[in-house]
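Extended Data, panel c. Modelled sequence:
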Amino acid sequence: MSETRQRILDDIKLAMKAKDKPKLATLRQMSAAMKQIEIDERVELDETRVISVLDKMLKQRRESISQYQTANRDDLVAVEQTEMDLIQQYMPAALSDEEIAGIIDSAVASTGAASVKDMGKVMGIVKPAVQGKADMSAVSQLIKQRLNS
C-alpha cells in the first residue's frame, strides 16, 4: 500500500476518534475513490496513481468552486474550499514556476517540438513529471505559450 494511502487511512481513524465529521467525510471520499479504482481494475494503486486520483479530486473541487462562485453560493464555495485544503495536504510539494519552465523546456528540446501541433508529444513527457505538483491546466497554457513563441 502506498505511503499516502496509508496516511489517509490512519487519518480516517483519527478523525473518527475526534468526531470530526467534515474531515472524516472528505477522507472517506478520498479513500472510496481509490478503492473504486482498485476494485474496477483489480490492481493495488501505487503512489503515482494515488496522487493522480487526488489530483483529479482537486480539479473537481476547483471546477465546483468556479461554478458556485458564478451562482453566488458562498456557502457551497466554503465547503468545497475546505475539502480542497484537506486534499492538498496529501499532495507532494508544488513545483515553482522556474522548475515547471525547466521541465517544459527540456521536454520541448527532447521532442524537437516546433509548433502547437506537437503539444501532445510535449504533454506526454511533462505530465508525469508535474502530476500532482502543479495545476495541469496552467501547465498546458505554459506549453502553448512556449510553442507559439
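The chain has two domains: 3-88, 97-148. This feature is highlighted in the accompanying rendering.
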